[in-house]
Amino acid sequence: ALANSFELNYGKIPDTIGILNFGAAITNFVVLQKGEVIFCRDIPVGGANYTNEIHKAMGVTIEEAESLKLSAVSRGDVPDEVHNIISMTNEAIAEEIRNSLDFLSATSNGLSLSRCYFTGGSSSTSGLVDMVSRATNIPMEAFNPFRRITGNPKKFTPEYLNQISAFAGVVTGLA
User: Fold this and answer.
1) How far is it, in rounded angstroms, from Cα 22 to Cα 123?
2) What is the pLDDT of residues 23-62, one digit of tens each?
3) Which residues make Cβ contacts (< 8 Å) with residue 155, sequence separation at least 6?
């Protein structure tokens, strides 16, 4: 679905690129080479990892941990410990992605990505995309699932489509 959405919006790119969909429980990782899917993996990390780590480290309920996470993402006032937990979790997620890239390289004669596109609700987590880019040494670019898709302006304002774009990568590919 991510590959379908990407091709519809960006066409077939001659480079080898990755797409990361940072979801709640899973990060989907798709690699396209000349427009064809050559690697696909569901990495068992996502937004819930942040919530669970805050819950465990701070001794708060899951609901309170989720609230603290969302406040931190929206730049609200939260204890410094929340930012530290988010940063440590970013490192763990970046490590998982780097491991997937290492596996891809080892099984494909050293194949590397020219760039990686990101999407998903958890992609807005403070520092996550930068951490992944630094850990993998791959430039990251936001994936726009509405780049070539226009909605009915009577039902969907451009502001609304921009607001939901991080959540629409998979569904636009399924549609």
Assistant:
1) 5
2) 999 999 999 999 899 999 999 999 999 999 999 999 999 9
3) none
Distance CA 1, CA 152 (A): 22
Q: Are 145 and 166 in contact (CB under 8 A)?
A: no
Q: What angle do CA 105, 30, 73 make, to 5 degrees?
A: 110
pLDDT digits (tens, 9 = 90+) for 138-168: 999 999 999 998 888 899 998 999 899 999 9
**Alpha helices (H) in 41-79, listed in sequence order:** 47-58, 62-73
Q: Phi then psi for 46, rounded to 5 degrees?
A: -175, -160
In whole angstroms, what is the distance from residue 35 CA to residue 4 CA?
9
Q: Which amino acid is at 72?
A: A
What sections of the chain are H helices per DSSP?
A: 2-10, 47-58, 62-73, 80-107, 128-136, 158-164, 169-174
- Which contacts of 35-44 are long-range, i.e. CB under 8 A and separated by 24 or more positions? 35/7, 35/11, 37/3, 38/108, 38/111, 39/104, 39/108, 41/100, 43/96, 43/97, 43/100, 44/96
Amino acid, single-letter form, for residue 11: G
Read off the tokens for 102: 């290492």
